[in-house]
Amino acid sequence: MPAHTIAQIAAALGAEAHGDTDLSVTGAAEPQSAGPDDLALAMDPKYADGLAAGQARAALLWPGADWQALGLKAAITVGRARMALSGLTRMLDAGPDLADGVHPTAIVGEGAKIGDGAAIGPFVVIGRDARIGARARIDSHASVGAGTVIGDDALLHAGVRIGAQVRIGDRFIAQPGAVVGADGFSYVTPEKSRAEAARETMAGENDAEAQAWVRIHSLGAVVLGDDIEIGANACIDAGTIRPTTIGSGTKIDNQVHVAHNCTVGRDCLFAAQVGIAGSVTIGDNVIFGGKVGVVDNIFVGNGVVAGGGTNILSNVPEGRVVMGYPAVKMDTHVEMYKALRRLPRLATEVAALKNSVSKPDVTD
Amino acid sequence: MPAHTIAQIAAALGAEAHGDTDLSVTGAAEPQSAGPDDLALAMDPKYADGLAAGQARAALLWPGADWQALGLKAAITVGRARMALSGLTRMLDAGPDLADGVHPTAIVGEGAKIGDGAAIGPFVVIGRDARIGARARIDSHASVGAGTVIGDDALLHAGVRIGAQVRIGDRFIAQPGAVVGADGFSYVTPEKSRAEAARETMAGENDAEAQAWVRIHSLGAVVLGDDIEIGANACIDAGTIRPTTIGSGTKIDNQVHVAHNCTVGRDCLFAAQVGIAGSVTIGDNVIFGGKVGVVDNIFVGNGVVAGGGTNILSNVPEGRVVMGYPAVKMDTHVEMYKALRRLPRLATEVAALKNSVSKPDVTD
Amino acid sequence: MPAHTIAQIAAALGAEAHGDTDLSVTGAAEPQSAGPDDLALAMDPKYADGLAAGQARAALLWPGADWQALGLKAAITVGRARMALSGLTRMLDAGPDLADGVHPTAIVGEGAKIGDGAAIGPFVVIGRDARIGARARIDSHASVGAGTVIGDDALLHAGVRIGAQVRIGDRFIAQPGAVVGADGFSYVTPEKSRAEAARETMAGENDAEAQAWVRIHSLGAVVLGDDIEIGANACIDAGTIRPTTIGSGTKIDNQVHVAHNCTVGRDCLFAAQVGIAGSVTIGDNVIFGGKVGVVDNIFVGNGVVAGGGTNILSNVPEGRVVMGYPAVKMDTHVEMYKALRRLPRLATEVAALKNSVSKPDVTD
């Protein structure tokens, strides 16, 4: 990492600098393992002992901290610790080691346009007529399909796969192995499928008759807004006729699956291994914990929060906080779960009651 | 997309064409967003208003629709809408933009054979003695291991990984990042492992003793039938001694995991994020919703249907429809779940009963 | 596979050889499908009929087996069958077909060092200043980031992605598509996020207010011990400031996710699709079945065993065996579940009791 002075870092964070603000640091570290050229991260008084144990000469500290008493030469004091962490890590993140321009091994298709200041890595393939925005960084082995448009300041890590005819806004980030625009998983049977029948009847058996699956191809591609991040090995499938769409500011973690024809709103946050089936509509500002599942063809309203492991099997209205399998309101879930924990005891109590109630009949 | 006339499309769908059947379309669209060169998809009367709002001159319509009253110049009327969608999207899907022949950057191993009419993309690696069937399309960065055989008309998207000694039938489709033939996850401990002990005792504690894991290598590869599709970033692991096998016609969605030594039947459908542990036997025509899990070394009979999120922890007989964690028959699940919803109230009722029953004791 | 004599195999397994120990085999097979050059695997008397049906001349047999009566020319008798399978499959596994040395298409960055006897495949990219140990085998399309260090005897399959500044010990195995060192999924909101609020209140509704996510970058990379295996398309994310760490001997299956800042101990075993959220501490010898989820910022003690599908939502002490959503002790889970199965009947009983209890009130 390049060196930064305490003054530069404080300015970038909009925070107050103290002491020898010309002092330079080349990295950040936890207080106890910080070396003399690291900025120690000690945004809470509980880290004071760690500072004493480490070798940092400068630290990020809580508001009002007595940096001199902590034996430091310089300090920056900040409010919300994680906001400061955001600014600091952004400054120190060098990103992938990519030379400017198009690497001689990369293949750029006929009619494709690469924006100014872009860095295209080894073995990258950019399809025919694709457009890549200014200052894009595309790491080795990534591929971008024909006719796809990606906005400015994109960062595609190694091995990212973007399909054909995809539209992506500015400041897109895709982690290694992310796949945008694979074909949707869409099959039809000539007659009603046994899956459709099972949903209708909710019976415990079905006729188990053989059925062959006929493929519906995906022509609709994907449209992503601005400021979207897609995690490692996550998949956003193409729509059938219209595109699968995701609104600006939405962040998607590793191994998430968003199926064909979904419409996802703005500023959502999906943790790892979330799976959203086909043709789901999700509002803005929705937060899904890890492993949340959503069944196909439903809607999830604005601002819904679902805890980790929740399986959403029916529509969820705006603002609801849900949990469980199937999903219910969080407080209902807690109440049901507490009752379930006590259920073995309840069964014993009912057995005792039956006994005591039936006895009088005998003795009467 | 290339232009097609209404007559050509109707012939391909085996459907009836009306009006100016020489009219050409170059794409398909939802009625309200269709341009003058799109075929509007309006297979239900509820889309009539959409047609009026859009600019389509031709549409796919429901049986008996009055296409002239809808202001169209031409129309095709169809029965089961999704079957028509299947035929239409197949016609219009151009597939990946790959030049015929072997791209100069691709590497074809010694003794490998590429079928007639195949298109092998940039940076593809085909292993020694592999055989690729006629008309295969293999997109950039895919790799095929030594000795592997893939049938005719395969479509491997970018970055697909096929291991060594794999046998695959005709018309195989693999989405980006799919992995067929990785090593199975198979470990043994010199003495009984704590996982085995926990299963036997079902106790809530174990001795937590250290154990080292000794690897069992995978020699058995994978055998896939005809007409199989594997989704993006899905994994089908190699068997230990005999191959992991999947029957013809089975369709597998994104991020599905099929472990070593599994035997999966014909015409199954596994939605995204399904996970099947080692040495499971699955019959024909089995349908798994998203995120279904199956524990190792069990069997699932023909025609079983499991709802999204189900965890199957024991054998499931033919024709059963299951749900829940652990899986039970669908109707049992519904009954149990309804009772659980009412459980907090039931607990209150039991408390009241205890009160009313105990009172007589006091007053007696 | 190269030929081995029965004597050689027995010596490698530390087992007893019988009969014509100079006989050569070139593969292993199940008894009924074994050819004359295969070693049949029949480590249990139940396979005796299979031996008769197949053509094997030599077999791996149970202790004390009468190999002559089974019609064999040679045999090896072994104790714990799966331990023998481990040794045998290791002998017969040729691994990926890679020529020694660096393939002419591979790119090795400035200052990078490749160990003696390494085989680096086509289209591999090794970053600036990376160090790869002796005898490493790195298959096609893999990439290793700048400054990363990988120990001796590594096996990276096709398309593996190792990020920058990662430290990996000896004998590392990574299956196709595995990603080590992608950026962690870490976001902050200027004010308290609605996810934090939901956890605190456990209420069923929230204000659904819009919030924008500010990124925290990952500077901490990943540190892996010796003898670690990572499955296909699995992801181990980089830490924020300090590294995400995994102890020696831990084995991780396909599509597992280990988030940023996690600390995982030695000799753990995580089955497919396990997901571990950020900043979790996991002890040594922990065993997770498939699809286990672990919520962020908790600890899981040494030797914990969690059954497939378990969602761990709070700390788990050492030695515990857990199951369920949320996770409870295995025996508690069994008891709760049995009670739940009987719950519909219990509800009927309570209704009957209410009737019988209320009747006296009427007749009094």
UniProtKB/TrEMBL annotation, chains A, B, C:
Keywords: Acyltransferase, Lipid A biosynthesis, Lipid biosynthesis, Lipid metabolism, Repeat, Transferase
Domain UDP-3-O-[3-hydroxymyristoyl] glucosamine N-acyltransferase non-repeat region, residue spans: 22-88
EC number in record: 2.3.1.191
Keyword Lipid biosynthesis: yes
Domain Mannose-1-phosphate guanyltransferase C-terminal positions: 104-183
Function field: Catalyzes the N-acylation of UDP-3-O-acylglucosamine using 3-hydroxyacyl-ACP as the acyl donor. Is involved in the biosynthesis of lipid A, a phosphorylated glycolipid that anchors the lipopolysaccharide to the outer membrane of the cell.
Protein name: UDP-3-O-acylglucosamine N-acyltransferase
Organism: Psychromarinibacter halotolerans
Gene symbol of the encoding locus: lpxD
